[in-house]
Design brief:
Length: 119
């Protein structure tokens, strides 16, 4: 399960690097999913899709310190430290991140994503 969900996280980050985050997250987020961002914003699925369509891409990223929290056989949280760099910015964004996934008949869906800035 850890490997499956980590592949999804990498695919999500890669989509944020290549400018296709709106399509990726539009396809993987549950209809009632939300993202809770480090700046305090809580965005529903439609807002995430719209926002990512206008966001500058990340230049690169790293995922470290991965932990899996099993909630049920079909639901789990992937918790990790994510670091993202954007061109033209000196310091990367470093955050404690968690993604809660639920497996359906069609595969994994993202139910909740949360990030907290690490200092």
């Amino acid at each position: 399960m850890t490997d499956e969900l980590l592949r999804l996280e990498h695919a999500g980050w890669q989509s944020l690097c290549d400018g296709t985050g709106d399509a990726f997250y539009g396809g993987i987020m549950a209809d009632d999913a939300v993202m809770v961002l480090a700046n305090g914003m809580v965005m529903d699925r439609d807002t995430v899709i719209s926002s990512l369509g206008q966001s500058p891409p990340w230049a690169r990223y790293e995922i470290e310190d991965v932990r899996l929290v099993k909630i049920s056989p079909d639901t789990a949280a992937l918790v990790y430290t994510g670091t993202g760099w954007r061109d033209g910015q000196d310091a990367p964004f470093v955050g404690a991140m968690s993604s809660v996934y639920h497996r359906t008949g069609d595969g994994w869906t993202l139910a909740l994503y949360q990030q907290s800035a690490k200092s």
